[in-house]
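Researcher: For the annotation table, I need structure tokens for prolyl oligopeptidase. Please keep the output clean. Sequence:
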Amino acid sequence: MKKTPCLFALAVLFCSYTYAQQMTIKTLPYPQTKKVDTVDTYFGTPVPDPYRWLENDQAPDTKAWVKEENKVTQDYLKQIPFREEMRKRLEVLWNYEKYSAPFKEGKYTYFYKNDGLQSQAVLYRQIGDNGTPEVFLDPNKFSADGTTSLQGIDFTKNGELAAYQISEGGSDWRKVIVIKTDDKSVVGDTLIDVKFSGLAWKSTEGFYYSSYDKPKAGSKLSGLTQYHKLYHHKLGTAQSTDQLIFGGDKTPRRYIGAYLTEDERFLVISAATSTTGNELYIQDLSKPGSQIVNVVNNFDNQHSVLDNVGSKLYIITNIYSPNFKIVTVDAVNPTITHWKDLIHETKNVLTASTGGGKIFAEYLKDATSFVQQYDMNGKLERTISLPSVGTASGFGAKKEEKETYYTFTSYVYPPTIFKLNIASGQSSVYKKSGVKFDPELYESKQVFYNSKDKTKIPMIITYKKGTVLNGENPLMLYAYGGFGVSLTPAFSTSNIILLEHGGIYAVPNLRGGGEYGETWHKKGIKMKKQNVFDDFIAAAEYLIKNKYTSKEKLAISGGSNGGLLIGAMLTQRPDLFKVAFPAVGVMDMLRYNKFTAGAGWSYDYGTAEDSKEMFEYLYKYSPYHALKPQAYPATMVTTADHDDRVVPAHSFKFGSRLQEYQKGPAPVLIRIETNAGHGAGQSTAQVISSQVDKWAFMFWNLGVKW
């Protein structure tokens, strides 16, 4: 067949590979993954785990298996005829300057910038708004392959010192380096083995940080971490002499975080046993020898200190108020009985920040932003005018600042940074996105549909204006549904590939998330987890019924807890869609709590050890265990070899069993990123490569013309 030549320029003319769908892609034989005779018994029920050996992620045979699986995957993907043209198109789309909102430290204004295709964003600084920018830290020089990333930086109050964290290969284990900001010379030794930690400076003497002891069993990447501890590091001393401030053997399985109020008077400590709910402690550092005081002594609700004015603390909490409120209390008697409401709970979920001596109350209204400005006495001053319906984030600034910055985005509104005059409430554009995308050609709309139990679920659907809803449109359905996480509208450069090819992008806000507060969250946890899956199934059925797509044109995607969701869809409704992308998913619901900090997820999931009833519930929907021999949709499981949050063993075991049980013709691939973790810190090249492979696999298996 004659092939029409393709032209590629900024205007981009696409060739329709009409011949392509007549081709057959050959899948290499899947590796003959060995099986072992491991069996666990729960409440009298034997549970075979034939792929247990893959949990040893650093073992030579596991590494050899990873290479074999990646060979199968890459051999399949390279046969897709438009894959490289898709890569070129994504590189063009990605190749624009990207900025962060600026922040002020000492005499400098700092901001992040990526020139376009740099592996990592570079941290710049300048004096004032009009000074000449200079490179302060360039993570692209941290490693040859761009996989060592900058994962946060904290400055002393005077801006003279900074401590920054780096991640190697995407790991959650970090190193901390201290430098003088004037000449960037290193101060003292590099701290190692720091995990799940902020850095909180006290003057220029030192800082507080959190970490675990190294795992005694298993690899550093997968070993169980139980004893999170808060330390104080004094500059010029060895890390081995750092003072233990809080945590340890007497408080196992805690996540411990700490920060200081802006005036450095109060050390605030949060201790949690799960991802929901925390104890709250304070220490008045203005009084030598002062003790750590317990403010909240249980894990039933969430609380944090927003700010202080002298001894008056401002606390945001969801105690008796599942959508959150702001209270005040004197630090002399800080317990709950003395709290006074300042900003009351509303029907919309509240988060908050402070800046310029004001409180910015950021509300979620049906998963979109609504922002109000209050004075420190709780008086409403104004509602911040936002460009349209979408997501606004930022607003934090120091007390003396006269302006603050926020970023606004939506599915069709590229991220734009605004400067807000705090006194007048007027916003002005600070930085517009340079992405090659015309928002006027596309639209997003929010719909509400009924789940299985008639609960109304919101969903935002995005597509090109004029799209004919005839059931023939390729559609990507993406969701999360867990841990109180809210999915709010956000622009994605990668999604342009789908939208400009007549595709549709749909995001439902499932129960288990935080879009409607803690009540919404609790309707999707433990033995109500099936609500999450039912909400997603109902979203797919709504989209098919209303002819946005069809079963033959539907792809589904989710990562982490969302990867669990997609795994459950593969086992519960494999007939409902054509393509699936379970990414870095929690797939073994009986053993997730045995690795890294997984025990902290038990609030959402429950554990197999809790009770016979909980075990049976988890065993029934656990994706790894619920697989059976039958035909499954085209699936590409994705994970990374350095993921030490949701360890890759979840995906390794699930993918192996899915390959074993696949009785249909659709491919089952496992794509394993090397020198990468749970997602944060990936180089631009890694991100583009993963997105190319995702869209190429989806387009090919849905028969989408390029």
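Researcher: And a one-line annotation?
Model: The radius of gyration is 26 Å.
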